[in-house]
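call fold target=ABC-type sugar transport system, periplasmic component
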Amino acid sequence: MPDNAVSRPSLRSSVRSRGRKTAVVAPALVAVCAAVAAGCGTSTSPSAPQGDPNAPLEVWTRSQDSAAKVYTRIFEEFTKKTGQKVEYKAVFNDFDKQIQQRAANKDLPDLVITDTGSLGVFTQQGLVGEVDRASLAGAADVSERAWGNARTSDGKFHAVPWSTQATVTLIRKDWREKLGKPVPATHEQLLDLAKAFTSQDPDGNGQADTYGILAPATTDRGYTLWWASNFLWQGGGDVLKDSGNGKFQVAIDSPESQRSVEWIRGLFCDSKVMNPNALTLTTNDAHPLFETGKVGIYTTGPYMFSRFDKNLGKDKYEVIPAPRGPGGDTVLGEGEDMYIMAGSPNPAGQKKLVEFMLTPEVQQMGMKVQAGETPVVRLPVNKNVDVKTVLNDPRWDTTKQVYESAGRPFPAVPNFQPFRQKTSESLNKIFTCTTDTRAELGKLAGELTKELSTQGIKQ
C-alpha cells in the first residue's frame, strides 16, 4: 500500500494548478467534472506527476468564525510540529456549491471536514477514494461506532471520522421553574411545557411574545427532516426501513410515521407553540431566538453550549435527553468526517494531517474552546479521550450518554441526500397546515420508492 491512505485508480495526466501546485486528477474525478462542466477532458500519459511532498495542504471546513478560530490553532500546531504548510479556509455559506465549482475546475482542496451527510455524494461523484484503515496510524484508536459514520452502503470506508455528536434538548430552566413545571420526560410533558412557555408569560414582561419550541425547519439542505427526525423516530416512525440485505423499503407512509407526523404538525397547527417563520428559518438565524428569550425549548447539538453560556448564561438553561415518545427516545446521532479529496499533489501530506487529527492531543484541542468559540470536536472519536476528564461538564456527559444509548444516524444508503431533501419538502408543506398529511405522505412514498430503485436498493 502506498503512503497515501486512499486507494486510487490509475491516474491520467490532466494537470491542475493551485498557486505553485501541480497535481494529477483521478479518473473518477474526471467523470464528475464531465458531468458538472463540459470541457474537462484529459489525455493519457505514462509520465504523470508523482506528487510534491512540500506542496501546501489546502483544507476546507464547513464552519463559521467561532469554529474557525479553533481549527486555526490546530493547523498552526500541525505546521509547527511537521513544517508542513496549511492553507485553511472556513466556508459556511454555499459550501456544497463551492465544492462542486472546485470539482468542475479540477482543483479540489486536499482535505475537507464536513458532516457525514456529504459521504454519499462525495463517494458517488468520485471526489474521494476508498480509505485503507490499516494504513492510518491511530485508526485502531477510533471507536467502531465512529467509523460507522465513514462507512458507505457497500461496507467500505470513504472518509475518516473526526467528531461525533447527538442532539439534546435545551430548556430555559429559569422559565420552567418560574412556572412550576417539571423537567419533561415524555412528549406529553414536553407539549405541556411548550404551551406554558407560549401562553403564560414566562419572561414576565406582560406581553405575549414568547414561544414554546424552536425549529430551524427550512427545506435548505433538508433541515426540515434534520430537525423533525428526532420527533419522527420518537413517535415510532421512519423514512426508510432497512431490510437487512442492503435493500430498503419506504416507511414514511406507515401508520406509525403518519401518527408521528400528525403529532409534529399539531405543534404548528393546533397548539401553535412553534416559533414564527420556523419553516423558513436556518440554524444560523434560529440560535438568537433561544439566547435572546424568544423561545424556550431547543433541540440542537452540544456545539451550542459555549455560545449560549456566553450570550444567555449557563445558569438560565438546562440540557436534558430527549423526552420519550410512543416509540422511545431515539435522537439523531451523527458527526463530521475528514474527506481525503482526489487529485492532491501531496498525498503523503494528506495522510500525515489526518493521522495528526486523530491523536488524543488534537482531539482535546478541538474540544477545549475559549468563551464564544464553538468546539470542533463534540464527542471525541478517539476512544482514549474521556469527555468527563477533559471538559468536567455534566452536560457533555449527558450528551455522551444520549449518543451511546439513543443516537442513530440517517440510513446508510448510497446517497441519503435525495431522500432527505424530498422528505423535508413534503414535511414542510404539511407543517404549513394547508396540506393533508396522509395524502402528502402517500405522494412522498411514491417518490422515495422511485429513488430507491434509482439507487438500486429497493427491496
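return ok
Confidence is low (pLDDT under 50) at residues 6-49. Residues 253 and 439 are 9 Å apart (CA to CA).
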